[in-house]
Amino acid sequence: MATDILALADRLWRGEESISEHHPVRHMGGLAEIGDDIAFVPALGNVTAIRTSDGLVLVDSGSALSAQAVHEEIRRWTEQRLHTVIYSHGHIDHVSGVPVWEREAQDKAWPAPVVIAHEALPRRFDRYLMTLGYNEIINQRQFSAPGLRWPTHYRYPDRTYREEMSLVAGGTTFALRHEKGETDDHTVTWLADQKALCCGDLFIWASPNAGNPQKVQRYPLEWAQALRRMEALGPEYLLPGHGLPVIGAERAATALTDTAELLESLVSQTLEIMNGGGRLDEAIHTVKVPARLADRPFLQPVYDEPEFVVRTVWRLYGGWWDGNPATLKPARERVVAAEIASMAGGAEALSVRATELAEAALTGPEEDADEGLRLAGHLVELAWLAAPDDPAVATARHHVFSTRADRATSTMARGVFRWVASESLPEPVRPADPA
């Protein structure tokens, strides 16, 4: 299986297979040996295992869904007791597997594993408990998973650090460094002797998850700076939190610097518009990915999208207002929708036009399809807000947003559009599929 994982990683890098067919936010299974005494398990949240003479060290522990499978894979590789778990960050797909290992330690009368994380991570767990209902709703929507339940119990770390920490286990040194990027609590783990870098979600074989529309603030510029610091270490093995290993110093450097350049470009383009007095709307529709990076197999918008990163930059440096005076103190959406519907000849007239635009997008020139679908979305949503109980409007809304979901490239957009389509005409939602 190790050969399969590394061979697939090579084919993906060369562009011989599409990352959309091997989505990085998906459980793959198997185990790949990376150099001496390092194993990589590609799961919903990847796990890296390092053997030392004092026991096993894990970088991340996986999700609750994959924890048992990850444990079994690693147990086929080694019988060492678990000594330490390092959390790369506090997202639940990376921190939820520790109880499986703790039960094993209790059954075998081994010392319990120690969990290490950045000092900001416990505050994340506290926030998750404060926003339990919200997190359930947004993750149900994002992953088209109406039955998803957000966890109410978390394995808090035993030890935390602020900037840097050196951990020595069985003669192996782990250099931990705090970085900000997708989260404010990221830890990068560097094994200098093995030239192995565990980077968490700072690289995920996709356009960076720096703009997730339903989640808290991300830090694109600090993220780029972190990537450049990681590249300066000269890693030969880049072991990410999602996706497959990147093997070889040249490839690792390319992955890190190209991702940094993408983020830096999105930030600088957005700031130029902000500093020039432009509106968010201008930034959304004019900021582009640098042409030389657009075809990179590891920077495709299959999870997040550069357009959403623009909004993150705006929120971080400019606040929530988009520059449109009407949105500073807006009227209720339904009041606006009712007025526009009345002027248009009724909500159904809006929904009919939306359907026409969607159909034209499917049959017309490809370069016009995106703009047509965007406009269709506006019109059909106005129609639905004005007449939410009208069956014809609901049918049109279902059609438009189903079409948008089918044409979307990213998990973020697809999840929202599919959820809205299902809300319009309740029916069994397709199983969660991050691809």
In short:
This protein is an alpha/beta fold. It contains 16 helices and 13 strands. The protein starts with a helix and ends in an 11-residue tail after the last helix.
Major sheet summary line:
7 strands, mixed
Q: Give, in order, the helices and strands.
A: HEEEEHEHHEHHEEEEEHEEHHHHHHHHH
Question: Which CATH architecture of the largest domain would you pick?
Answer: 4-Layer Sandwich
Query: Outline, from the CA principal axes?
Result: elongated
Mean pLDDT: 95
Distance between the termini: 23 Å
Number of domains: 2
Q: What fold name goes in the CATH topology slot of the largest domain?
A: Metallo-beta-lactamase, Chain A
| Beta strand count | 13
Helicity level = 40-55%
Bin the strand percentage: 5-15%
Walk me through this protein's architecture.
With 435 residues, the chain is of the alpha/beta class. It folds into two domains: 2-263, Metallo-beta-lactamase domain (Metallo-beta-lactamase, Chain A, 4-Layer Sandwich), CATH 3.60.15.30; 331-424, Serine Threonine Protein Phosphatase 5, Tetratricopeptide repeat. It has 16 helices and 13 strands. It has helices at residues 2-14, 67-77, 92-95, 98-107, 121-130, 132-142, 220-232, 249-275, 280-286, 306-318, 325-328, 333-344, 347-363, 366-386, 391-407, 411-424, and strands spanning 32-33, 38-41, 47-52, 55-59, 82-86, 114-118, 159-161, 164-169, 172-179, 186-191, 196-200, 237-240, 246-247. The strands form two sheets. It has a seven-stranded mixed β-sheet. A six-stranded mixed β-sheet has the order 8-9-10-11-12-13. The protein is elongated and about 75 Å long. The model is unreliable at 428-435 (pLDDT under 50).
